[in-house]
Amino acid sequence: MAVKMFAAIDVGSYEVCMKIFEFSSRRVMKQIDSVCYRMELGKDTYNTGKISVKKIEELCAILNDFVRIMNGYKVSSYRACATSSVREARNHLLILEQVKRVTGINLEILDNSEQRFLDYKSIAFGEKNFYRIIQNGTAIVDVGSGSIQVSLFDKDKLVTTQNIRIGNLRIREKMADLVRNTLHREEMAEELINNDLASFKKMYLKDRTIKNLIVAGDYILELLKKPMVTVEEFRQMYDGIIEKQPEEIAREYGIPSESASLILPSVTIYKRLIEETGAANIWMPGLSLSDGIAYDYAQKNKFIRAEHNFEDDILAAARVIAKRYQCNKNHARNLENLALLIFDKIRKVSGLDARSRLLLQIAVILHGCGKYINLSDGAECSYSIIMATEIIGLSNRERRLIANVVKYNTFEISYGEIMGQPGLTEKEYLLILKLTAILRVANALDRSHKQKFDQVRLELKEKELLIHVDTQEDITLEKGLFPPKAEYFEEVFHIMPVIRQKKTI
Length: 505
Known about the structure:
Nucleotidyltransferase, domain 5, 22 helices, Hypothetical protein af1432, five-stranded mixed sheet, alpha/beta
């Protein structure tokens, strides 16, 4: 391929940054420029709930500078993303409209789970030791302005990922009016986060050994000056700066004075996480959201190849949720196989893509989680659990799609009720209908939850989906409850599922 230029723009809570990347025919990704402006959008949001007109105009001026730079590099593609400062602002729609009108840039607001997944991708692609590190107990700690994301790995598998709604800028703003009344700023910062960290430890760190901490962001890297340190080296750094004022830190470490005010809450968060996890080594790749945006673009366009399967991480996070709510593991595994067999067999005629397949798989994994709360109203409870639980790598819209598929697996489909949900598009409505149809048929094939079929083979023949099953079991229940599910499937896909039984000798 010819050389391609791409720009990744990060509208963050305290900086607006753009990185320019070059992709060559040798599947090489190279950063060729980086521009950052200091701008505390998050201060407005966290203090007043919205971003001021003055700040919006300043943001537009910065983005217009970025447009000129992109034109100079002949950038052919870009992605501009905003995080919590814009996401939590009451006037976020006005901000997006103003940015588009004044600069021509389509600014995308990332959900927290999308943002953290891109941060995670930047580490997985950019840290050369990543795959070796996560073979042992590892926590990736992503400290943002408004929250902390902690993702736990063990033996190359994502165990869990959780968001704690305390970040460095949020802590600094909470401390602003109180710090003048105390000499122990670090103790106050610790008190702000201790309760949340104690809850996290109790729920997710029990009987788990964490050897490595991988830190997203670059503040700590600027202080320690090397990509890996021991806990003892971190403590020496911490003890050396904890009594210093931001101005002193800025002078000593060559950090912009505006950034130095975030150092205390940042290192306090790291210190407490080190204490709670018992990690021995701290890794600091020095990568940012902009890197994650670029890696995601390169991966999706097949400019670079990922060694790590990121979809497996999303599925692992879903399985952790299913385990927490004591879902029937054997039934879910069987249902997963059946649903994916059906999906793959009709894929060419269904209009569904690879992402839809992933959403179906997650819906199957989580379809029974609501029974933990209420056996007689499991579908509604499952909907509520999924809507209230972040899944790393999925947007809020995707999570809502999954929640609806799970709900309407047993509820009667209501066009008015579904389309009455704010912001739902007709395309998303159709996707809910299609995935629900597949889940209903798959679920009907294991209605007894006994996994009766030794082997299942599908055959798409004209307008019939023949489901050949080998079994010695009595499947009267499955056959008896199957027709309504099959009729709905035919209504959606114009294909009639038919069970064909072959008794195994």
